[in-house]
């Protein structure tokens, strides 16, 4: 599945959400390596560094995103995801093997890289390899212990022998050919002429834990715009308890509403009521500011309100969903060509309409001489979508996706950076921190005129502090 298509990620997330799948392997083509966090899933991907070809990765549902401990991109054909469980952790390897037409050198290089990736996984982990092996596994009796007796094919292909040799050498079994199903539930690939069906996508697991795989079958009814069918494996595994702690984020106030005189008056009135309540006031400056900032925050939440988070794919409306549903219905009837063209035509039209509206908004911003919003809109349109800085690399160049590990890396980086060249700054990570200085000097409270001058010197359109109060809010009151 090509995830650079405009609606591919939406269809993939919706289709797999219906199946209640928690870990999925999409054959994707995205940019380089990383993790893209969505509302209902996280997409981990490993692609070619320069060309948009091949690629592999994982789609992890929101129910399991807190169990992922480490994601390791190896190449455009290999990636590893480690999941925390109760008794044994899971090391899941995503693989995309070369086709039968490739030369032996490319195949040997892939399996050598796969062997090295397998050996790097912890020995006590349950190791699962899944993906597109481009391998036909036959029903020869000599391979019954490794592949079972229920394959779609009678004989084994060259790639199939390579897969069996790799699995047998490591006491692994091919679980996708060990369950009795109809042939239509075994085929994983359909030729463009819709006449040839092969079973080339497989699930391989350690022989010790082969009984944990309850079932492996193909779901043909799920339309993911690919010549491969969706392969689902039901694995019985007890995961560890992970606390689903949501990060505390400060919501931004919609300060643009302060341009309205009605909103400004309502905010000033409500703030005056809160400040003049008959409650005992603290005598120190810190306590007074805590009381004032809490009152300003409460008044702003009531009178001003918060900014709405930006929505992705605003052009994907109900008409697009109807077109996608029509295409899916046609796909189930194997008459999908006309519906697919109609769907793409509607998607292109919706995107053009959205781009036209954005150009009109730019003209309005230019006429109003609102340079800040104008350049923000221009940068967003020219730079395109960015996944965000949710992951980083350690000193060895390995990609780190875990939130706590990322925070520890940034803390160590800034500690080393702020400590200087000799690393003797005791204020950052030193053994003997500088004690606080108390000279018993009373600091007088600021005057009313001094506070007013300080407020008037604040610059607009700057990030709010720890209290979440932007500069426009006190300036509107003053």
Can I get a quick summary?
The chain is built from twelve helices and 16 strands.
How does this model look, in words?
About 1% of the residues have low confidence. Helix 5 packs across helix 6, helix 7 runs antiparallel to helix 8 and helix 8 runs antiparallel to helix 9. The chain has 478 residues and is an alpha+beta fold. The chain is 35% helix and 16% strand. Among the domains are: 228 residues, 4-Layer Sandwich (Deoxyribonuclease I, Chain A); 66 residues. The chain contains 12 helices and 16 strands. The strands form 5 sheets. A 6-stranded mixed β-sheet has the order 5-6-7-8-12-9. A 4-stranded antiparallel β-sheet has the order 1-4-3-2, covered by helices on one side. A two-stranded antiparallel sheet has the order 10-11.
Sequence-ordered SSE layout with sheet pairings:
Blueprint: H1 8-18, E1 23-24, E2 33-37, E3 41-46, E4 56-61, E5 68-73, E6 78-83, E7 90-96, H2 104-120, E8 126-132, H3 144-147, H4 158-169, E9 172-174, E10 189-190, E11 197-198, E12 201-206, E13 213-219, E14 230-235, H5 261-275, H6 285-303, H7 318-332, H8 337-367, H9 371-383, E15 392-393, E16 399-400, H10 403-418, H11 448-456, H12 472-477
Parallel strand pairs: 7-8
Antiparallel strand pairs: 1-4, 2-3, 3-4, 5-6, 6-7, 8-12, 9-12, 10-11, 13-14, 15-16
